[in-house]
Design brief:
The structure is a homodimer. The first copy, chain A, is mostly helical. In chain A, 71% of the residues lie in helices and 0% in strands. Chain A is built from nine helices and no strands. Chain A has helices at residues 7-22, 29-36, 40-46, 51-74, 80-97, 116-140, 145-169, 173-176, 178-183. Chain A is elongated and about 60 Å long. Chain A binds chain B through residues 22-26, 101, 103, 107, 110-114, 116, 120, 123-124, 127, 150, 153-154, 156-162, 164-165, 167-170, 174, 178, 181, and chain B through 22-26, 101, 103, 107, 110-114, 116, 120, 123-124, 127, 150, 153-154, 156-162, 164-165, 167-170, 174, 178, 181. Chain A binds a DNA duplex through residues 7, 28-30, 38-42, 44-46, 50-51.
DNA sequence: CCGCCAATAGACCGTTTGGTCTAGTAACAC
DNA sequence: GTGTTACTAGACCAAACGGTCTATTGGCGG
């Protein structure tokens, strides 16, 4: 029973949380190190390029978490709208747990830092993974590949915008209301 | 003919651009000062709280710019969809001019910095101004207040998400495709 | 026991940060 | 002229930054 997460994992998770709260440039290395309970030497052992490497790892980890939620939401969904709705409700719950303070978990920690294009590329990659995951479920529900991809993009675009608005207002309702915005009110 | 912008305006505009490119914490005061050609003393004369004040002024200024584009797009629009479409095309053009590098002009510079709640409140205010502007045009086009407000929110949520995706991909198409996503393909 | 290497530990460094403070200047009132 | 106010100008500072470097530890193969 090895329930202690590895040093590397503790770093990535602490970094993810802090970047989400304060942004890349707003978070100091010392802060991450303290939070993770890890000395500086270990950071540069696991991530030779330091902060930038850590940010990319954090982005990757976040994308995987999102995909896990997508899986949980769509695996048993009878149709596309149900999958989207479940996802939105799960994320609204997460939003409330986070006390409305954090950036959108998908994009929060990207687009900053000196190394602009590296981060942009990492964001694009994470985004594509997420959209691809959703697309697969759309196909499984009978949509053509093109239709599924389009639906997945619309879904993620709407989610991204909704999270941002929810954050400015500190109200998770916006997230729960997304399916009705995208697909119209439920017909009895 | 006083075509020289005031010291204050030069500061706000330089700050707006830099914050949009590198974020709040990513931008140094020196950088802003150099860009604006203004010494430090003047900054703290016009903005006693320094960087934070400047950021709020920049957010306000940006919101006004966005509302100007909304005005230009909706004033002569025959219906809601036309207004949204014109807005999206104008913003796509802006996106291309900015070389795809910048954050969403609506939200780019918010949500960072030590003073979390002040910035959040400023973002909420700017957001509301923009949604209110769009809502007014919706009412003018015959929608009830509630319907117009809802349409405006959906529009801005979609725009926000689209800009983010456009930025990760460095392609403005996503912006131009938004109306079709929201309102379906054009019927002949 | 030794040798080896991954990993830990944190002192240390040069740079840059946002912010303060004193001095100087231009315009107007009287 | 003098006084006053609004603004410009930039030297200066303590603190924090990301990153480097040396030393040490722990565990496994031999």
């Amino acid at each position: 029973m090895n329930d202690e997460p590895s040093t590397r994992d503790r770093l990535v998770q602490a970094a993810t949380r802090l970047f989400r709260q304060r942004g890349y440039d707003g978070t100091g290395l010392t802060e991450i190190l303290t939070e993770a309970g890890v000395p500086k030497g270990s950071l540069y052992h696991h991530f030779p390029d330091g902060k930038a490497d850590l940010a990319c790892a954090a982005a990757d980890w976040t994308a995987s978490e999102i995909i896990r939620v997508i899986d949980d939401s769509f695996r048993t969904a009878p149709d596309w709208r149900h999958g989207v709705t479940t996802f939105c409700y799960k994320m609204a719950k997460l939003f409330d747990i986070l006390e409305s303070a954090d950036a959108c978990p998908i994009f929060g920690l990207l687009f900053e830092g000196p190394d602009q294009d590296r981060f942009r590329a990492q964001a694009e990659h994470s985004f594509d993974r997420i959209i691809a995951a959703a697309t697969r479920y759309g196909e499984g529900l009978g949509l053509t590949h093109e239709a599924a991809h389009d639906a997945a993009e619309t879904f993620i675009i709407g989610f991204q915008g909704s999270w941002t608005l929810a954050r400015t207002r500190r109200k998770s309702d916006v997230l729960r209301g997304l399916p009705a915005r995208l697909y119209g009110p439920l017909t009895a």
